[in-house]
Structure formats: C-alpha cells, structure tokens
C-alpha cells in the first residue's frame, strides 16, 4: 500500500509520500514515490504514485523520457495539459499491461498526484485516476490523497484551508496526516518524503527525507500525541442527565 | 455504512454507534444500532451491528426471542459463551439468507460488537465476524470497531489504554472517534448513541442519544477542532537544513 498527499493553498503547495511497497508479506521494500521534474526558473512538477509498482514505474519512466527530450511535461503550457499528459501515460501503461495482468487476476490501479507550476500560470495540484482522467484540488477541497487515505484524512478535514493555512502549517498537517497513517496501518512506512513549494519559486529545493526515527519527525510525533491526549482531557465531561434522551 | 465501537478498560466498557442506514442513495434512514439485553443485577449485554440491516435485524430478533424466554444470552455462563451465542445467530441468519442474497449479487456481511458482564465474571468486549467466530478485545488491543473504521481509528490508537484510560476519558475518545468519522464520511450519521458501563454495575442506565446539533456534542466537536488547530500551530516548525537528506 501507499499514502501520498498533495495540499494546495493560496501560497503554494505541499507534497508528501511514504516509501513502503510490498508484493505479498515477504517482499516488503523501500521505494521513493515522489518524482521531480524540474526546469528551474521555468516549470516544476512533482509526481507521486500509488498502485502496482511495476505499472507506476512505467508511467514515471515514460514521463521522464518525454521530459528529457523536451516533450510531454517539458512542453505543456498549462497545469491542466500537464495533468492530461500524465493521464495519457497512465492510459498507455494500462494498454500495455492490462490484458496480461487481468488474465492472472491483477488490476491496473495506478493513481498519480501531480503538483506543479509553469511560468505565467497559477500553481495547481491534480489527482489522476487509473483511467487517466484528472481531478483538480480546489479552494473548497484543497487536498488530494492516494493509497491508504482514510486514517490521515480527519486531521486534514479539520485544519487545512486554501485561503488561511500557511505553507508552514500545511507542511505540519501533511506530516501529521502521514504519521497518523503510519501509526494505524502497517502497509504504509518510512522514509517520508516532504516537499514544500512556494508559488513562483520555480525550484524544488525545499525538500526533506525523514527516515525511521528521524529526531525531528519523532519530536513532532511525540508532541502531537501528547497534545491530543491533553486536548481530550480538556474536553467537557460527558454528562448523563436523567432527562436526556436515551 | 455504519460506525460502531466498543472500548474495554480495567474499569468497565464504553459502547458507541451511529444511526445511518442506506440502501442506495435514495433510501437513507435512521436506525438505532445499539441493542440492550438487561437482567438488572445479574447480567447486561450491549450488541451493536453493521452490515445489511435486514440481516442484522434478524440476528437481533433471534437473540431477543431467546433472551425473553430465558435462553441464549439469558442463560450463558461466561462472556465467551455469550459471544458464541451471538455467533450462532449470525450463522443461522447466514444460512437462512445467504443463497438468495448471493444469487442476486449481495453479500451476507453482518458484524456484531458484544459488550457485557455476567455476575461473578469479568466484563468483556467482543467482535463477532460474519462467519460467527468471536474476537475479544484485550489489554493490548482494548477496542474493537465495525463498519467505517479507519477515520476514527488514529485517535483511539493514540489515546486509549486498558490500564490507564478512565471510563470518563474513554467516553470522550469514543465521541471524538465518531465525530471524526461523521466529519469525513457521509455514510455515517447521527444520532449517536453512547453507553458507559462501570464494572459490577449490572445496569445500563448511563446512556445517552446525541441528535444532530445536540449542544453538548457540538461543544465537544468545536472545542476538539479548535484544540487540534492549536496543537498543530504549537508543533516545532519543519526545517529544511541544507545538509539534510533529500
């Protein structure tokens, strides 16, 4: 399994991903799921993938090949075209592998999050479905998730707002959301990759990889757990008045 | 969908359930999922159900019929036997309905949480699978959930401990866990039923139903959301030192 998320705010975007892959219980591996496409000063993209590693690797390989020869993500003019461009490669891999996979009972199930900005255009975060169609994160729904989404969703629902959440805060929300998922689900695992991009920056330098037991990540984890317990303790007591409905 | 949970601690147990049922988008109804079986002073049981309402209703009806004639839950001697007794009715309904349901593509998928105590015995919380086999909540895993479990799980993982969590706190954790699920998932809905049982009490009077916009529930919801935002704001800032791994 996998957990990746992208958050967009008025100031930029945050991307975060775990690194656990597995094919059955015996083949558990570490694999970076965050892929960068950078033409500093002109355009930047971050792609994160979930689904069968073989298929998602193929999608990234094809995107990379085009990008390096000045095509695909290197040539698109808007983020919508960029998302469509990713969708085309998802469809291409689906065509290449679907028949062989399905006849042995496997599914083609690649999801991609694409965040980025092209000079002269607003930054954007998209989720691309396994069918290749893109969904844009909006002011009302400013984050997208792929993989094991549910554990890490409540904290995002409570706190992330397009207009008022700073990038700094969005980065903390992303780490907490991933930490909650790591805590509750064994198929999501470290290292955690985090990237923060401020609008019109046009480079992807503010990145960091948190390995297992990273002291900074551990500090956030511990302080968060403590704060949650204190917040529960500070809640009003639950009463059972005799005239309450039962 | 449904969300029910049972928490056991050294002092007793807490049970909580939502009330939304649906058969497609047009048939959304309210239905109590918490069922009480009480012989005050001698034994008490709370059963909560998820899965097809038709099947789970049948299970409760059969349990009730036996109970009222002094059999089944009225006659068992341990909580393990009580859980087995529920499992038997789950299997009976499965036998009654499985064939007809499956031939039209439906599944028999009743899960039950059974919490209770019989005089002279310790209190216990069980989850009964659709196949009828029981799983007991333990000191190490002091809660069980059925239905839409994932959104409400991280807060339980962080805070609920068999030895140290008071019943009062466990009740708040249960409400927050349900509130997180209501917030993030539209298939779980109010009213919320909450029950707190202190060991050796042998009655189920500490109960309450929170309807939509209940002022006490709303107060907990708002204070919790505020506390979470403050806790995020108080976390250490995420640094990107130049020598950090990327």
What key attributes describe this structure?
homodimer; 246 residues; alpha+beta; Glutamine Phosphoribosylpyrophosphate, subunit 1, domain 1; five-stranded antiparallel β-sheet; 5 helices; globular
CATH architecture of chain A: 4-Layer Sandwich
CATH topology of chain A: Glutamine Phosphoribosylpyrophosphate, subunit 1, domain 1
Task: Count interface residues per chain for the largest interface.
Answer: A-B, 50 and 50 residues
Q: What is the typical, i.e. mean, pLDDT of chain A?
A: 96
Structure characterization notes:
- Two copies of one chain form a homodimer.
- Chain A is α+β, with helices and mostly antiparallel strands.
- The first copy, chain A, has one domain (3-233): Glutamine Phosphoribosylpyrophosphate, subunit 1, domain 1 (4-Layer Sandwich).
- Chain A is 35% helix and 26% strand.
- Chain A is built from five helices and twelve strands.
- The first copy, chain A, has a five-stranded antiparallel β-sheet with strand order 10-1-2-11-12, with helices on one face.
- In chain A, strand 3 (20-22) and strand 4 (28-30) form a beta hairpin.
- In chain A, helix 4 (167-184) crosses helix 5 (215-233).
- The termini of chain A are far apart.
What is shown here, in short?
Chain A has helices at 53-68, 79-103, 153-159, 167-184, 215-233; strands at 3-9, 12-17, 20-22, 28-30, 34-39, 43-50, 111-118, 124-128, 134-136, 143-147, 192-198, 207-210.
Secondary structure topology:
Two copies of one chain form a homodimer.
Chain A (H helix, E strand, L loop, with lengths): L2 E7 L2 E6 L2 E3 L5 E3 L3 E6 L3 E8 L2 H16 L10 H25 L7 E8 L5 E5 L5 E3 L6 E5 L5 H7 L7 H18 L7 E7 L8 E4 L4 H19 L13
Antiparallel strand pairs in A: 1-2, 1-10, 2-11, 3-4, 5-6, 6-7, 7-8, 8-9, 11-12
Helix pairs in contact in A: 1-2, 3-4, 4-5
């Amino acid at each position: 399994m996998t957990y990746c998320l992208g958050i967009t705010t008025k100031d930029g975007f945050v991307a975060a991903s775990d690194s656990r892959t597995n094919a059955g219980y015996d083949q558990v591996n570490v694999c970076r799921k965050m892929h960068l496409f950078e033409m500093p000063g002109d355009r930047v993209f971050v792609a994160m993938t979930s689904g069968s590693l073989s298929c998602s690797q193929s999608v990234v390989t094809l995107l990379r090949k085009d990008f390096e020869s000045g095509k695909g993500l290197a040539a698109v003019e808007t983020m919508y075209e960029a998302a469509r461009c990713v969708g085309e490669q998802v469809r291409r891999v689906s065509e290449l592998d679907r028949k062989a996979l399905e006849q042995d009972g496997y599914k083609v199930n690649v999801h991609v999050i694409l965040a980025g900005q092209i000079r002269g255009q607003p930054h954007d975060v998209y989720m691309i479905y396994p069918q290749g169609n893109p969904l844009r994160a909006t002011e009302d729904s400013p984050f997208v998730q792929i993989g094991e989404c549910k554990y890490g969703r409540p904290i995002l629902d409570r706190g992330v707002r397009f207009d008022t959440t700073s990038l700094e805060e969005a980065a903390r929300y992303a780490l907490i959301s991933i930490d909650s998922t790591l805590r509750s689900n064994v198929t999501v695992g470290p290292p955690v990759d985090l990237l923060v991009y401020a609008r019109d920056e046009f480079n992807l330098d503010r990145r960091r990889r948190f390995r297992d037991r990273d002291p900074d990540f551990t500090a956030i984890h511990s302080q968060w757990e403590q704060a949650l317990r204190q917040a529960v303790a500070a809640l009003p007591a639950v009463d059972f008045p005799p005239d309450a409905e039962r």
